[in-house]
Amino acid sequence: MPLRQALKRMGTREREYNYNLPLSVPSIAMARGPKKHLKRVAAPKHWMNRLKYALTGDEVKKICIQRFIKIDGKVRTDITYPAGFMDVISIDKTRENFRLIYDTKGRFAVHRITPEEAKYKLCKVRKNIVVNDTIQIDLETGKITEFIKFDTGNLCMVTGDANLGTIGVITNRKRHPGSFDVVHVKDANGNSFATWLSNIFVIGKGNKAWISLPRGKGIRLTIAEERDKRLAAKQSSG
């Protein structure tokens, strides 16, 4: 008797079975080791179409194959090569340079910089020199040219938590043995907040930043302040 008829006689619902499936599923060997490409997580939409030079994947491949794109001074032809916080992206054909930083809404901002600023980047020291200090690296030689101590009174950018992208001055640091150290920061408007030590990236000595700042200067506005700013812009333009 065919299996389909036998199942019907036993009262089993036919739609619960798929008769086209093989009895055994062959195992698939997955490659091991770290991967740079973001494979299994969908990339956010706000990462796309920032410069409007390429709107499709084929256009991206054509641009990269022609060796037009440099990241930190090195030509990159792999379209899956990752670029992150503080990386410098250079396009020699258009003579443009950009730095990837955060805006006050926690999104990546492609910030246009000068050719002089494109020669270096800032890095956060994790295991060498002193932990949490910031170093300045020459992108041509790869050598450390200068560094900033993680001290009270220096300018910093928040790289995590709810205040991601906010820029302010370190006012206090509280140590909590066995837990997370907390750092207090005050922005240019006088607003103070606290965050974990791991979320702090020092970007300047005192109030002077070592990199050019994006539009808004890292000041996080409230919803009411953003509304008032939009209304004022409409009234001035109208």
TrEMBL record:
Residues 32-48 form the Small ribosomal subunit protein eS4 N-terminal domain. One of its GO terms (molecular function) is structural constituent of ribosome. Residues 94-142 form the Small ribosomal subunit protein eS4 central region domain. The keyword Secreted does not apply. Pfam families: 40S_S4_C, Ribosomal_S4e, RS4NT. Residues 187-234 form the Small ribosomal subunit protein eS4 C-terminal domain. One of its GO terms (cellular component) is cytosolic small ribosomal subunit. GO terms for biological process: translation. InterPro entries: Rib_uL2_dom2, Ribosomal_eS4, Ribosomal_eS4_C, Ribosomal_eS4_central_region, Ribosomal_eS4_central_sf, Ribosomal_eS4_KOW, Ribosomal_eS4_N, S4_RNA-bd_sf. Keywords: Ribonucleoprotein, Ribosomal protein, RNA-binding, rRNA-binding. Belongs to the eukaryotic ribosomal protein eS4 family. PANTHER family: 30S/40S RIBOSOMAL PROTEIN S4, SMALL RIBOSOMAL SUBUNIT PROTEIN ES4. This is Small ribosomal subunit protein eS4. It comes from Jaculus jaculus (Lesser Egyptian jerboa).
